[in-house]
Amino acid sequence: METYKCNVCGMAVNASCANCNEPLINDSISLDDGSSVQVSRCPKCEGKIKSPMCCGNDMTCSV
Ligand SMILES: [Zn+2]
Ligand SMILES: [Zn+2]
Description:
By secondary structure, this protein is mostly beta strands. The chain has strands at about 5, 10-15, 15, 20-25, 25-30, 35-40, 50, 55, 55-60, 60. The chain is built from no helices and ten strands. It has a three-stranded antiparallel sheet with strand order 2-1-10, with no helix packed on it. The protein has a three-stranded antiparallel sheet with strand order 5-6-7, with no helix packed on it.
């Protein structure tokens, strides 16, 4: 299971796609304004969500 962890407070989140029961993989997408956003992507259905945030920072993926 993919786990996201906050480096500040240590909170951890298990992220998976409820449709596919697949662990999400860490990815990033580029926005129109040139910035990039860290996202969690499902390898099966290609669904994407914004990576979880904690303490004002993107939580880091441990894998
Ligand atoms: Zn935190
Ligand atoms: Zn999926």
